[in-house]
Amino acid sequence: MTVAGFGMTIVALTLLTLLTQTAYASVLGVADLYKILDENVKDGDIISASGNDFTLSKGKYDSGILGVVSLDPALYFGYNETPADKLYPVITSGTPIVNVSTINGPIKAGDAVTSSDIPGAGMKADKSGFVLGIALKAYEETDTQKIGQIPVTLNLRFYYPGTQYRRSQFD
Question: How far does CA 114 lie from the centroid of its chain?
């Protein structure tokens, strides 16, 4: 191994250490800036695409799910705009903190999370449909209208209950 290669390894390990110690406390993910039409957009809100517009998700199993607003992403691409421009960093890949409700029952670690009828909030997925990803922590609030936050590994896809742990379609 050359000295230059060794130096690059140290830089990579240092960067990885910084990301895991600072960013994981809030979010691990890369965000892009999107103009969101809704008012009162909050950190952790689920965003959907509809045509050329981006809005808070407002329906169960929304097929337009795009990602999650993260006001503190590990990294984002874009440039600073004024708040009046309504540009928000949205994570489409990674592990953001997501606003959730127990409107469809308590969420356990490993449950699929999808959009709900509560604007911007997710819920436990219990039937086939589009999902945001997999919950990494439980959320068991008894008030179904109360919104909490949990980390979710994003894996936007069509979900079939009972198949999330399969290695392939032939298992």
Answer: 10
